[in-house]
């Protein structure tokens, strides 16, 4: 018999008691948070959510559907997408959810998705740029882009630009169409290397991910500037969901995985909680007509100083247009 055998029951009681205490602590911490806001119904409106089959995107889709929106999930897995549609329809008792294939790592797939969407001849009131990858090993998209920059940023850059005309036609003076882009607090430590956007000189998964998230903030600010200059009834905002317990962490170092497994239930937001600021940006009357904002915990806050560099915004936009093969309409804007 092991010398520790007599201690096993005692240790079991100790850890069980500790788990109960921590569970109660978590409940008390959550009770300090204000109740979830009640948003107005969105009947007759249409939304597209990239990566809406799981994680933050799934809960964003579910909430928008509950509000009466017709929501289109744009994703790169037919099986996961159709399963998400089935579950959301069961949980919300609405049939206004559908899936369309869109691989954001493929410029061809993005263009095909937009063609399919346009064939529906419907409006578009909300575009949620949510999908993303994090800390993946070095590899390229089918178009030759570093995968973080290509999927997280360039994919959404092209998708947004191809859908802009529909968004502009759908927005009105009293109800602007909305573009909501999901970034991350990681952008605060990101550096944009305009001479090496593909991270070919020195690849770091952390650096590449942070750069892609900074690029999304710069893109949002430049986009809002152009929308305002053109008098469009469309707003563009960027959100930080916080630290959320999702599948994005599957590529992190094993020590981080162990730490996450031990602490996620206490320190991390659930995917549903992580979706709250995205939903707020998509439908809240409080920010009607307001664009160019960085939102965290449903409040406007300050992003990284470098994100406000208008020259950097312009240069990134111009370079991005070249990369995805679209005309740079911004060259005629102030």
UniProtKB/TrEMBL annotation:
Protein keywords: Lipid droplet, NAD, NADP, Oxidoreductase, Secreted
Q: A Gene Ontology molecular-function term? A: oxidoreductase activity
UniProt entry tagged with the keyword Protease: no
Task: Classify the source by domain of life.
Answer: Eukaryota
Q: Is this entry keyworded Transferase?
A: no
Location(s), subcellular:
Lipid droplet; Secreted
Q: What class of enzyme is it?
A: oxidoreductase
The record's annotation in InterPro entries points to: NAD(P)-bd_dom_sf, SDR_fam
Pathway, per Swiss-Prot/TrEMBL? Protein modification; protein glycosylation
The UniProt entry, under PANTHER family, shows:
PHOSPHATIDYLINOSITOL-GLYCAN BIOSYNTHESIS CLASS F PROTEIN (PTHR43157:SF31), PHOSPHATIDYLINOSITOL-GLYCAN BIOSYNTHESIS CLASS F PROTEIN-RELATED (PTHR43157)
Please report which protein family the annotation says this sequence is part of. Answer: Belongs to the short-chain dehydrogenases/reductases (SDR) family.
**By what name is this protein known?**
Polyprenol dehydrogenase
Which organism's genome codes for this protein?
Gallus gallus
Gene (UniProt): DHRSX
């Amino acid at each position: 018999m092991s010398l520790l055998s007599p201690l096993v029951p005692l240790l079991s009681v100790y850890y069980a008691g500790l788990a109960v205490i921590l569970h109660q602590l978590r409940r008390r911490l959550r009770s300090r948070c204000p109740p979830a806001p009640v948003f107005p119904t969105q009947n007759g409106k249409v939304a597209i959510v990239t990566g809406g089959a799981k994680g933050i995107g799934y809960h964003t889709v579910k909430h928008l559907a509950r509000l009466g929106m017709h929501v289109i999930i744009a994703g790169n897995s037919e099986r996961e997408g159709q399963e998400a549609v089935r579950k959301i329809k069961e949980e919300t008792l609405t049939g206004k959810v559908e899936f369309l294939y869109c691989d954001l790592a493929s410029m061809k797939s993005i263009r095909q998705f937009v063609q399919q969407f346009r064939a529906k001849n419907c409006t578009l009131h909300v575009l949620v740029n949510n999908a993303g990858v994090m800390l993946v090993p070095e590899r390229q998209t089918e178009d030759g882009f570093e995968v973080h920059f290509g999927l997280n940023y360039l994919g959404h850059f092209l998708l947004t630009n191809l859908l802009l005309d529909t968004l502009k036609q759908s927005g009105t003076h009293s109800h602007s169409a909305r573009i909501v882009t999901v970034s991350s607090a990681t952008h605060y430590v990101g550096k944009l290397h305009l001479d090496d956007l593909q991270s070919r000189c020195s690849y770091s998964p952390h650096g590449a991910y942070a750069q892609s998230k900074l690029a999304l903030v710069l893109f949002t600010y430049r986009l809002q500037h152009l929308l305002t200059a053109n008098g469009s009834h469309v707003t563009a905002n960027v959100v930080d969901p916080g630290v959320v317990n999702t599948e994005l962490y599957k590529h992190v170092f094993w020590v981080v995985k162990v730490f996450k497994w031990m602490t996620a239930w206490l320190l991390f937001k659930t995917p549903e909680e992580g979706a709250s600021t995205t939903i707020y940006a998509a439908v809240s009357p409080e920010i009607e007509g307001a664009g160019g904002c960085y939102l965290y915990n449903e409040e406007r806050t300050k992003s990284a100083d470098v994100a406000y560099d208008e020259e950097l915004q312009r240069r990134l936009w111009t370079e991005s247009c070249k990369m995805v093969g679209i005309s740079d309409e911004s060259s005629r804007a102030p």
